[in-house]
Fold:
Amino acid sequence: MSTDKKPNGYVPMMTGLAKAKCPRCRRGDIFASGTYSFTGQKMHEKCSHCGLYYEREPGYWYVAMFVSYALNVAEMVTAAVALHILTGSDSPWVYVGVLLGIIFILSPFNYRYSRVILLYWLTPGLHYEPERAKDKHGEQSIM
Structure:
């Protein structure tokens, strides 16, 4: 049994990343809809828990395109190697068909997690702040 006590509202980094939670408090959702939702992927403008604005500056999400490209390349290389090992096919049309299908199926995943990876790991000065993750139960209203 561990004697380490986690602070109120603590969420581990990989859990917050996998569930697309705010990188600063890991409590508020980054996206308003699911990954494979028919309504599209809508992002919240700011965190509902700590108030962090997700778009740090104009054009901030352009960097996510490079992250998405890197994810796409990694997925394609992995799929091509796996396809070669499993089928041993020399036909380029098998590879083109399967890889285009994989690109189509994984594009919502890549869109979402390229932005999450950008927020979690590639944004300087944006770190987890445990004091912001605490529940707001004890706060009194000024109004």
In short: The mean pLDDT is 88.
